[in-house]
Write a structure and sequence with these properties.
- There is one protein chain.
- By secondary structure, the chain is an alpha/beta fold.
- Helix 1 links the parallel strand 3 and strand 4.
- Helix 1 packs parallel to helix 5 and helix 2 packs across helix 3.
- The longest helix is centred in the middle third of the chain and has 17 residues.
Length: 225
């Protein structure tokens, strides 16, 4: 897959990019875990998510947030990383102006950034939040959550305890016009050690069902730009 460098708000950003053969294919952006705790775009779960979307014909991008790998800048506690993600989406869209829809998938810290990006970009029609951390990060900006998506976590996660994730899910499920799907991987910790295959099988099943027109409310709520 092509290595790419594109301009971000704090300097150059490094990524891996795979365009679809279809001009109007949807875009998928995959966001990695916390930069200060070893998170990079080469994280195994991030790579597997990238490959999952690529296999299904998406134009796909994963990239290193500022300060990681060859990406310039300094860690910015989420605000700058959200700007990085927005710039990444802008960059892909500039190359694929016929793409009308987008998905965002994020793992851990990346799930928090991904959900914030979702709030700002009406073209994002689906999301995957893997092991989000509502016990650490404030998700109150999801008011309302604009798109249907998947939240998935392990029931042995001590970094993001199950009760906190369940609280986030229950809050989002009260909204009308979207459908939040929640999956739990039994015995999995925050890193899904030994459980990556199970995690990816759940993500693939969800994506395939969404692409088949399932797991969204009927009729689908219209989004206002």
């Amino acid at each position: 897959m092509p290595e790419i460098i594109f301009n971000g708000p704090a300097g150059r950003l490094e990524g891996r990019y795979q365009p679809s053969k279809q001009k109007n294919a949807p875009i998928a952006i995959v966001l990695h875990p916390h930069p200060q705790f070893g998170g990079t775009m080469n994280n195994q779960i991030v790579y597997q998510l990238f490959y999952m979307f690529q296999k299904r014909g998406f134009t796909t991008l994963r990239f290193n947030f500022r300060s990681i790998g060859r990406s310039q800048g300094e860690f910015d506690h989420g605000a700058g990383e959200l700007s990085d993600a927005a710039s990444a989406l802008d960059w892909v869209q500039s190359l694929h102006p016929d793409s009308k829809s987008c998905w965002v998938a994020g793992y851990s810290f990346g799930a928090w950034i991904g959900m914030q990006l979702l709030m700002r970009r009406p073209e994002i029609e689906g999301f995957m939040s893997i092991a989000p951390q509502p016990n650490i990060y404030d998700f109150s900006f999801l008011a309302p959550c604009p798109s249907s998506g998947l939240i998935i976590n392990g029931d042995a996660d001590k970094v993001a305890p199950e009760k906190d994730v369940n609280g986030l899910v229950e809050k989002l499920k009260t909204q009308k016009g979207i459908l939040i799907t929640h999956r739990t991987v039994p015995g999995a910790n925050h890193f899904f050690n030994g459980q990556t295959e199970t995690l990816m099988a759940e993500c693939e099943d969800y994506l395939d069902r969404r692409l088949a027109g399932e797991l969204t409310p009927e009729p689908a709520a219209k989004r206002i730009r």
